[in-house]
Amino acid sequence: MKEIENKKDVAHLVHTFYDKVRKDEVLGPIFNGIIHDWDAHLGTLTDFWETQLFLKRTYEGNPILAHQKMDDEMNGTITPEHFGRWMNLWFETLDQLFTGERAWIAKNRAQKMSTMFYIKIFEHRQGQKS
Description:
Layout: H1 7-23, H2 27-34, H3 38-54, H4 63-73, H5 80-97, H6 101-129
Helix pairs in contact: 1-2, 1-3, 1-5, 4-6, 5-6
């Protein structure tokens, strides 16, 4: 195993991980039903994680809005269990491919973001009820 050293490593992580997500019995139908251009999406996610792990500004977007929109498309059915399943696959993929500080950072940031994203989804749902 090696450390995450560059964008090529990040792309390998993202592609390997989302191969698992797409095949997952719970997450697969959600992601495959919403994402129609996987090549573009994987490029965006690679940029996102490169930004997170190397502090390069290659990602431009709003992941909170993207997750709120996904929940809207799923009629408000995204649960903490979905995020937990995503996290388990993320950790599994990182442990399978990489070691070192950036792998730890990828796990830590994903944990923090998953909590924040779900809170923002919940707040968005509450705002729609008003």
